[in-house]
Amino acid sequence: MNTVGERIKAARIKAGLSQGDLAFKCGWENGQKRISNYESGYREPGFSEVSKISRVLGLNAAWLAFGGEEDQINQVNAALSVGDDIVFPLFTEKEVVLGANKGHLNITEENQIKIAKSSLTNLRVDPQSVVCIRISGNSMSPVIPDGAIIGVDSESVSIKDGDIYAVQNGALIQVRVAYRLPDGFRFKSFNEAEYPIESVKGEEANAIKVLGRVFWYSVLR
Fold it and tell me: Are strands 184-188 and 172-181 parallel, antiparallel or unpaired?
């Protein structure tokens, strides 16, 4: 199952749902065509759609979006819970950009991250919506430096002014303080000397994909 569409189809069939049933449970009226487009690869679901589908099917959003061992379709929830922690796969920026359509990630000790269940509960973040990414670049230094790990709530894609979000701009994953504009976004970096405030409007704004709110980050120096 190398594509997000193939994983959606396999999980839907395992759950005994038709395309129409899945669409209905996701709250998409007359959405059978939508699910069909996802499964065929004609249309790629965004993070918010993947998160919603994963919640309905009882799967981890990261597995559904980016893949993993095929037997994780049966045990992904149990495999991620270890004592007082939840273990998440750790993705690179490139894997986030390409992972929805190409290949999968084999989870090892080197590419996983643990977050305390209590932290997720206190932050009101559903573990099924979490995607962890190792970021590169110094645009958010010194607060979130090069090589830091961020936790993204893929369910939280509606911009709340002044919060930190991960966004995809073409082949780039960017972490920015975000603000809404009537026809786009304003993005602010912590390293304003090298990355001045940027306003994105019109067609450029339409090309921006909000991956989710950054609710957690970890820095090891």
Answer: antiparallel
Q: What is the DSSP letter of 102?
A: S
Q: How far apart are CA 183 and CA 200, in angstroms?
A: 8
Q: List domains and CATH numbers for the chain.
A: 1-125 (1.10.260.40), 135-221 (2.10.109.10)
Written as one letter, the residue type at 156 is S
Structure tokens at 184: 């786009």
Contacts for 20 with CB less than 8 Å, ≥ 6 apart: 31, 32, 35
Q: Which residues of 43-67 are buried (b: 16+ CB within 10 A; e: fewer)?
A: eebbbbbbbbbbbbbebbbbbbbbb
Q: Which residues pair with 179 in a beta bridge?
A: 186
pLDDT in tens, 163-175: 999 998 888 889 9
* Pairing assessment for the beta strands 149-153 and 164-169 based on DSSP bridges: unpaired
**Can you give the pTM of this predicted structure?**
0.72
